[in-house]
Request: fold
Amino acid sequence: MGTTFLPVASIVSSAGGRDGWMIVLPAFILGIPYGLMVLSLLSQFPNKNLLQVSEIVFGKGIGKLIGVLYILITGYFGGLLLGQVGDIYERSIMPLTPISLFYLGTIILVFYLCKSGIEVFARFSEVIFPLIILALILNLTLSISRIEPGVLLPILSEGVMPLFWGGLKVAPFVMEYILFMAGILAFLPTDMKEIGQLRREVWRAVFLVGILDMFVAFTQILVFGPFETTRIVYGLLVLGKMVEVSRTVAGVESLFLGVWLGALVIKISAFLFTVVWGLETVMNLKGLKWEIAVCAVFMGIAFGFVRGSVLISEISFVDNYLILPFTTIWILGLWGTARWKKGKNIRGN
Amino acid sequence: METRRHQKVNRIAALILIVCLLFLPGCWGKREVEELAPLIGVGFDLGKKPGTFLITMQLAKPKQGGGESAAKIEDRTFSVEVASAREATEMVYKISSRIPFMGSLKVIVIGEGAAKAGFTDIIDFAQRFSEFRRTMYLVLTKGKAQTLLNIKLRDGELPAMSIKNHMEQGNNLSTFPTVRLGHYLTIIGSQSTAPILPVVETIKSGEDGIEYNNAKEGKELHIQGSGVLRGDHLVDYLTDKETKGYMWLENNVQNCLINTMDDKDKVSFGGQVLKSKTRYKLFDNNGVIGLQYQIQASISVDEVMGVKQQLSEPEWVDLMNQAETSYAKVIQEECEMSIKKERDLSLDFLGIGRLIDERDPSYWKTIKDQWEEKIADFPLNLNVQVSVHHSGMSSSSSTTND
Reply:
């Protein structure tokens, strides 16, 4: 899920206007075939991540090249997400705090999670995830009183093509998840019963996050109208500022922001893990010093994008032009080739 | 070997914790409450120099010490002529020695001059700077916003707080629209609909049939009517009745008070709207598309005057039926006045274009470019249905002729 709920409304409304919310779930569903492809590779190549699988299937040269691309893309994106922590806090509630403190505080937490291993990271996510869901539900339901009647109508007046383009902008969100899956694969159980359970979890995760993000986009378009939803950078933060309970409770956006920080930490940690796994697989670079080095690179990238508007357009660029094409082609190509080779081997025998 | 590694990790962890303690105490950029001056109201007028605005900031200063009530707040209102709202903050900060805190802003008052010249640029700060919330109210005033915010009210309340209280109670009377900044921005984003803002004025004793004890120093605020804008430029004002018509047509009436006379002008009925709903339907009359308003209101009759004899039950039922017809007539007249104003101004403050777009987007696409010209003769039908739920605690009348 990460922080997809922060930009999703603005992205879909810029492409699909008032109908933009409709494309969120279908675009997320694209993650199901890709998730199932990854799990099918898991059953074929147990205890190996997809970088190792790529080396087996495509050969060392191409496999290494894919590995390097994987490290560069996930590393760059992780650094940009770290920059987004500073951007969100500086923009919304703590404009006077030096941006470096947000980077430093977050990277320490992220490093600690990474250092403690995948199990601690999973437990951290297990604790934070329900809080994210609760905060989202609270934020959305407490915004009902601000709904502008009629802004969602007419439905599909511009046809379905704008939705298609909107879907292309949402699809990278699930591809980020697939990139993480590609790395964590080596830690997943491999017996058939548990792979069946993992398949069900892919469906569940995609639908849960897709539906939640759809409601986030839906509520923002209902409250702000399509034009304003596109214009507002982090609509959910503005929505949080508008929450008032019975004219007595207001200004609770900081509470929501605490939870969103948790979501960001999970996402950045996931990308730190992918880079660390990538370095270990492709270049055999492992150990504490390399984890610290990756954190330093993340910090460097974040410091390179202290200008918020540049950062947001860079995140969008990496999502649309690096993560989406790289993941769609790589996973599809890997799965297709692996199946073809498997079929060839069976026929050969 | 393993123990030594653990020690190394623990040392690093301790180092990280020390760094955190040093750099992340959580108070960076802190501002104590005593250093802040909560901003309650802002007024925008045109400045004397071209390209400048006269910005009036009404800051609250909580009264210290005992006395009547600790909740009372002192007024600190400053006006500065500046080119931007941020500049105004700087100047007020210099004068007041406290940092104006924007998160508490409740009301933005737009003076007539600024409203006519356009005010989107000057309110950009209020929708961009993160301290503000989009829930603040926007109001217009005939004359200067500075004057309005500087008046002394008879109850000692700050004008901005008084306007905010009026706005929050607006639904009880439904005689003026309550417009928050977020709603205004959504409306101007829709492009076809003209925004409308309520008008706040001061009222002197004796004006508009209202009198009050002049011995107590101060004035009273009065919210009545509204202003219609083209984008962010004030074009014209709506009268009280035209605004009420707008409220009916916009489905904004929750509860309101309503008075009427029977068709012979002998019996008057005072009542309260308990519930109201306005529905919209497009009709096609031999190829001519029009919009049908269907207003349904439930009313309780609280006052009957002019009945000179005791009425039997059937006669009372008949009288209440007459009341229903008369109430419907009043609502119809108010709506027609509002529609006439819309046609005269060729400005769609009733949002008819959006209603057409919602119901028949393909037809809307054919007319949207000439919509302002088409408003003048676009077919509109009104159907008002009123049902009197009850006539209070008694039937008939206490007055008799005999």
Q: What stands out?
A: The longest strand of chain A covers residues 244-245.
